[in-house]
Amino acid sequence: MRYESINNELFVTNRKHLVKDLKANSIAVLNANDVMPTNSDGTLRFRQNSDLFYLSGVDQEETILLVFPDAPDKKYREILFVRETSDLIATWEGHKLTKEEAREVSGIDTVLWTSEFWQVFKLLMVMGDVEHVYLNTNDHYRADVSVETRESRFVKSCMERFPLHRYERLAPILHRLRSVKSKFELELMQRACDITASGFQRVLKFVKPGVKEYEIEAEWAHEFLRNGSRGFAYEPIIASGANSCVLHYIENNQVCQAGEVLLLDVGAEYANYNADLTRTIPVNGKFTPRQREVYDAVLHVKREATNMLKPGEKYYDYHREVQKVMESALIDLRLLDRNDVKHQDKSKPLFQKYFMHGTGHQLGLDVHDVGSMYHKMRAGQVWTVEPGIYIREEGFGIRIENNVVIMDDGVFDLMRNIPEEADEIESIMQS
Ligand code: GLY
Ligand code: MN
Ligand code: MN
Prior knowledge:
Number of domains: 2
CATH topology of the largest domain: Creatine Amidinohydrolase
Strand order of the largest sheet: 4-3-2-1-5-6
Bound molecules: glycine, manganese (II) ion
Radius of gyration: 24 Å
């Protein structure tokens, strides 16, 4: 791994929390992600299943975690199964975790080979007084579940082989646990944000009229990789001029022109944790008066929105309040008419023409992290705050996005050191 080793207290504590939420006589099983194929013998880079990583810290394919808190034999209360290596694997793929290393990473004493899983699992299922079997499904509300994962194949075969056990969902428990970040997790997220900050500083000095969007992408990548990140947390959006109005623009193939804005929605990954930054800058180092006016309005909405975050708040109520602040900003910018707003169809509010997306989402091991959008916000959650105004008729859009931790008394901004004032951005670009 590129990241520094993580204190296994993080994973030990996470499993303790999970165990508290399981019914008596339960067994829980979690699987690694597949190494996903592309074409021919190609594969995508391996990305561990976030839930398995959260509970074990193991960043290796073909890993299985079994948790059986009431196991009659103590050594079966937690079992980690890892891929057995060989000379052939060592020659072609390199080092795989030894049992000792897997123990150290996860804090789990009993480590077996993955090839032994079904034999051990069957014994525990039929001899161990197991009543409830907790399995994992991807229950993110926007997940595409049409591709069968290693986990979903396991769910199928487990239920086929043991049809009369009682099955339970792990997802609601893990969503609740993962959504509140521990001290160790916040340190890793701060690292991801700090690496992102270095990338932004580098880009501020690089951007000028005539550079291509993908050259800017390369600057970010350079800074991320040299700091121990595996790269982008998500496909970066490097959108100059009118592209800044395309919310998921990822072509990044245009030439930046003087007088245009450049919207940068880019974040680094670190140790599987993510940052999610957006800044909008002037290509030639100076906003036009109109761009500046809109920029300041977005910054104002972002700050108001940040101040509204607190424990007990519910996302959709909060989002509605932010929309009201945005509506009045859009009137001040002469994009909406006060009288039209007064008489608007409430089911199709006029602000949606310029601000058509959410105010934020939770962030963590996943960029759009798990955790209910309906439940009350809790201290320790990390939310993005990302209002934007997109004016297609004027050929530019502006979004500003920070990542903040909800605290008992306000928020802690993980991106507090990343320039966001227009004057500061201009002065760095011109220096
Ligand atoms: N970069 C993805 C998002 O802002 O949600
Ligand atoms: Mn973003
Ligand atoms: Mn975001």
